[in-house]
Design a protein that fits this description.
about 475 residues; 8-stranded mixed beta sheet; about 25% strand; elongated; 5-stranded antiparallel beta sheet; alpha+beta; 2 domains; Spore Coat Polysaccharide Biosynthesis Protein SpsA, Chain A; Jelly Rolls; disordered N terminus
């Protein structure tokens, strides 16, 4: 368990003094000269076993920098699955389309909802290995619960015809979501509940913020960004304590999506009115955004043995590439493209470029017929569906127009990487599949730009965005 710089657990004071802490309120009762102590409702009423372990509600922070003050917090619980694990793909999807400023305004909390320390450590190491910069910056955080957080699931009552396994599964889900919501309540303005087997639509971050701003004056309890279950439900963080306490109060009784609907019923429905009136009033407390921003992709449920063929029909088709109006150039590459996904089509903004496995010395060359002034460039590899096919150990290089005639003649020849093209200057490299930057004035104008692969790859390579800024 990691700790803060002062040796204490890096959890928020606000979080640990609300529903996570037993508090007492002293009230002066009218007509009584003495004072009577009243115990406020709190988590110990709903989970009395926690009294036996005072530290059982201190979240175990595995990775993170304690980021706060963001616009949006994404909560992702993840558990052991018998079959495929989708977490890395989900995180790749969420991070794929974010720009620099969006990465500073977002916090993604992965809650490893297991008490097996080996499994928790393996998930943390997987995230650290795949997303080192996002962990270091504080964008990604990984937490887990105390081993004493969960109650004895064997004592649960079977209801609604569900098996013991399903009752345990849905009860644990209620507790997991409640824990995560309580942990996230003071970290940002809005909280979005996700699952660990989803795909996000490109541009989802701005869509979340803009719709929340558009609906700000309405009395909603939550906004919906997916049609399926609890995926993509957005709450104001100030409402999370109430929502989480409701889930805790009835965590043994019903599934979490039923409980969420019951909150709406309690708030606005009258037993003296009919179902139509109730539904109309509940509709005011939830606003739906279309098209859906998150799609469920996991086939194997976290409930062992259950297959989920759930697809959100409102999600539509993904945009697998970003088109730009690039300057005219003669294009060449040593990479062999797959099917119709050619470099020429990608450069024109008609498709993405998808190439077979790169090897050391492979290149992509943009040769401009006339030297041009390039202010900046952006190359993005992988896309929302094929996030793993990225360029690794690859540099971005330019040939200034003042290079020698001999060097300029070499760029289109088969000796491109035989050491005879020293006039090319490295100006950038791919990091986590993206290379973006500006080109300094001293190098202008530019005669050619190229990407050079410096080591053999284990995967194919895909360019979903090519942007030459002139």
């Amino acid at each position: 368990m990691s700790k803060g710089s002062n040796g204490t657990h890096p959890t928020s004071t606000t979080t640990t003094t609300t529903i996570f802490t037993e508090t007492k309120t002293v009230m002066q009762l009218t007509g009584h000269p003495g004072r009577q102590v009243f115990l406020q409702p709190n988590i110990y009423h709903y989970m009395p076993h926690l009294r036996q372990h005072p530290d059982s509600l201190i979240p175990n922070l595995i990775l993170g920098q304690g980021r706060r003050g963001v616009s949006i917090v994404l909560g992702i619980p993840t558990v052991k699955r018998d079959k495929q694990n989708y977490l890395v793909s989900t995180l790749n999807s969420l991070l794929y389309s974010l720009n620099y400023f969006q990465r500073q305004d977002l916090l993604i909390i992965v809650f490893v909802a297991e008490v097996d320390s080996t499994f928790v450590s393996s998930i943390a190491e997987t995230i650290r290995k795949n997303f080192p910069k996002d962990v270091q910056s504080g964008l990604l955080e990984v937490i887990s619960p105390s081993p004493h957080y969960y109650p004895d699931f064997t004592a649960l009552t079977e209801t609604f015809g569900d098996s013991k396994d399903r009752v345990k599964w849905r009860t644990k889900q209620n507790l997991d979501f409640s824990f995560l919501m309580q942990y996230a309540q003071d970290r940002g303005t809005y909280y979005v509940q996700l699952e660990d087997d989803v795909v996000a639509k490109a541009g989802y971050f701005n869509d979340l913020k803009n719709f929340a701003a558009q609906e700000a004056s309405k009395p909603w309890l939550y906004l919906e960004f997916s049609h399926l279950g609890f995926i993509g439900k957005m709450f104001r963080t100030r409402d999370l304590p109430t929502v989480a306490e409701f889930f805790l109060m009835f965590h043994r009784d019903k599934p979490i999506d039923w409980l969420l609907d019951h909150i709406l019923w309690v708030k606005v429905c009258s037993p003296e009115k009919d179902a139509k009136d109730c539904n109309e009033k509940k509709a005011l407390l939830k606003q739906r955004y279309t098209p859906s921003l998150f799609q469920h992709v996991g086939l194997h449920s976290s409930l062992p043995g259950k297959l989920q063929h759930l697809k959100d029909k409102d999600f539509g088709k993904q945009t697998l590439y970003q088109a730009h109006n690039n300057p005219a150039a003669e294009l060449s590459s040593s990479l062999k493209h797959y099917q119709q996904h050619s470099l020429h089509r990608a450069y024109r903004g008609e498709d993405f470029f998808w190439a077979l496995t790169p090897i050391q010395g492979d290149y992509i060359l943009l040769n401009f017929s006339q030297p041009i002034h390039i202010s900046g460039y952006l190359f993005r590899s992988g896309n929302i569906e094929t996030s793993g096919d990225k360029f690794h150990n690859t540099t971005v290089e330019v040939l200034p127009s003042n290079a020698s005639t001999r060097d300029k003649q070499v760029i289109g020849s088969s000796t491109l990487h035989k050491g005879s093209d020293k006039a090319f200057i490295i100006i950038g490299a791919f990091e986590n599949g993206v290379s973006e930057g500006e080109i300094e004035e001293a190098l202008q104008p530019i005669s050619a730009l190229r990407l050079v692969v410096h080591s053999d790859s284990d995967v194919w390579a895909l360019l979903s965005e090519i942007f030459i800024k002139v």
